[in-house]
Design goal:
Length: 144
C-alpha cells in the first residue's frame, strides 16, 4: 500500500468565486471552508465505512455532512458535494479512509484559503478574523 500523499483535489471549482465575490458571507470564511469540507469528508468516510457505497450511502453522506456542518457552525454549501465525492470516489479514496479528509481535502482547502486571503489582501478583506489571530486592539488615539 502506498503512503497517502497530499494531492490536488478536484472539487475546487465552486470555491474561488466564494472567496472573490462574497467576502462577507459566513460560508466563505476560513473556518467554514476548511472545517466544512473536512467535516463533510469525514462524514462521507464514516458512511462508506459503515454502509459501503451506493445510492442510499450517498444520500446519507450528504445529509450527515449537512447536519455535522450545522453542529460545527461551519456550513459551506459545496460540503455536500465533498461527502458525495467520498462515497462515489472510487477505491483509492475508500482505501484512504478517514485520512483522505485531512491529507487531501484539508491540505487543499488550507491552500485555497491562503490563496483567498492573499487575493483579498488579508487584513483588509477579513478584518475581524485577522484581528483575532493577531490579538490586536483598536487604536484609541484615533478617536480623541
Amino acid at each position: 500500500m502506498q503512503p497517502l500523499r497530499p494531492r490536488l483535489w478536484s472539487p475546487w471549482a465552486p470555491r474561488p468565486p466564494l472567496f472573490s465575490l462574497s467576502l462577507t458571507a459566513l460560508f466563505a470564511r476560513p473556518w467554514s471552508v476548511i472545517g466544512g469540507n473536512v467535516i463533510s469528508a469525514l462524514a462521507g468516510s464514516l458512511v462508506v465505512t459503515l454502509l459501503g457505497t451506493g445510492t442510499l450511502a450517498a444520500m446519507l453522506a450528504v445529509a450527515l455532512a449537512i447536519v455535522a456542518m450545522q453542529i460545527g457552525r461551519c456550513l459551506h454549501p459545496p460540503g455536500g458535494a465533498v461527502a458525495l465525492s467520498v462515497v462515489i470516489g472510487g477505491p483509492g479514496i475508500h482505501a484512504a479512509g478517514f485520512a483522505y479528509a485531512f491529507a487531501t481535502v484539508g491540505f487543499n482547502m488550507a491552500l485555497l484559503t491562503l490563496a483567498g486571503l492573499a487575493y483579498n489582501r488579508g487584513a483588509d478583506a477579513l478584518p475581524g478574523f485577522v484581528r483575532r489571530l493577531r490579538g490586536s486592539k483598536p487604536n484609541i488615539q484615533e478617536h480623541e
